[in-house]
Amino acid sequence: xxxxxxxxxxxxxxxxxxxxDPEDPCLEAxxxxxxxxxxxxxxxxxxxxxxxxxxxxxLASQLAxxxxxLSEAVTRFTAPSWPxxxxxxxxxxxxxxxxxxxxxxxxxxxxxxxVPRAYRALRRATHAQEAxxxxxxxxxxxxxxxxxxxxxxxxxxELLGRLELEAxxxxxxxxxxxxxxxxxxxxxxxxxxxxxxxxxxxxxxVMALHGGSGHGRDFLFAWLREARTRGCVLVAxxxxxxxxxxxxxxxxxxxxxDAHRLFELVTRLRELLPIDASRMLLTGMSDGGSYAxxxxxxxASPFTALAPFSCVLAPEVMLDGRIARARxxxxxxxxxxxxxxxxxxxxxxxxxxxxxxGARVDYVELEDLSHCHAREECARVLDWMGVPRPxx
Length: 392
Known about the structure:
The chain is built from 14 helices and eight strands. It has helices spanning about 1-20, 25-50, 55-75, 85-110, 115-130, 140-145, 155-170, 215-220, 225-230, 260-270, 285-295, 315-320, 345-355, 375-385, and strands at about 175-180, 190-195, 205-210, 235, 275-285, 305-310, 330-335, 360-365. Residues about 5-10 have low confidence and may be disordered.
C-alpha cells in the first residue's frame, strides 16, 4: 500500500510538471503514445472477450498492425530528454506499452491447440493496466479508461470531476490495495475501495474469484471499471492452491477450506467499511464461478446474490444437501454457447438443479462466447442487482 501511494505521488508531480510546461516536447510525445496504449489495451480486451480456438490466428493478425504502430510510437516517446519530475510518468507509460506489445506477441505465438498460452499472454494486458492505474489520478484519459464505456458523457464528466477533486486531497483507505498478494504469492487478496463515495455511504460489495491457475491481482481488473463507476467495494482473493479448494482438486486430500477464508474476509471488510448488507455479490469465472456456487450455497455464506461465469455446478452441492439453501437466492449465470471447457449442456443441467431447489435463476447464454469472461456482463450483473450507473 505504501508503494502504491508513492507511485501516485510521483505521478501527480509529473502531471503538475506537464501542466506548468505546456511547451515541453515530452508532452507531445505523451500525446502520441498514450492514446495508442489505451486503444491497444481496449483491443486486447476485445481479443480476450472473443478468444475462441478457431479464431485465435485472426485475432492475433488484427492486433499486429496496432502493436507495430505502438512500437514506432515508443521510439518517438523515448527520444526526448525527460526531466526528473516526468520520469515516473514516462516509466509507467513505457511499462504499459511494453506489456501491451508483449501481450500481442504472446497471442501471435499461441496456436489454436494451445489456448492456455493465449490466456497467459493476455495477463500482460492486465499488468499493463496496473502499470497505468496510478496515472488515473492525474491524467483524464487514463481515468476515463477505468470507467464504464457506456457511461453517458455528461455523467462521465461529472464523475471524472469528483474523482479529480478526490485525487487532489485523497482520503486514507480509498483506492487500490494489495495484501500479501504479489503475483509470486498465493492466499492474499487485492481490493478496491471507491474514491468518489462519501465516508458513511453504504457501498455494495463485489467479491470476484479468479479461474484455475489465476490470480486475484489480475482478476480484480475484470471488475475494476464497473466498481469504480458505480461505487462498489471490490475484493479479489487469490486461492492458496492453484485453484479453489474443491475436495480433492486443489491438492490431493485437501478439504474445502477456502470458503471460511472468504467469509472471514467479508467480516473484516464490513468492520472497516460501510458495506450495504443487502447487496453483496459473489462472482467468479470458470473454477471461480463453480466455487462461487459451491461456497455461496453454504449456510454461513453472507452473500445476497451469486453471479457465476462460464462454469459448472459441482456435484458436492447436491450430494451434501446444501443446494437447499438456493431457495429464493438470486443467481445470474452467464455461459457461452461455444464454451469448449464446460459445454453449455452442463451449465443448463446446473441451472435446472438450482431452479428445482427454488433459486431465482437468470440464465444468460451468449451465442458468441467461448470459455472467456464476458466483460460486458459485469455491468448487466450490477444492473440486475439494482446498483445504478451514474446518470441512468
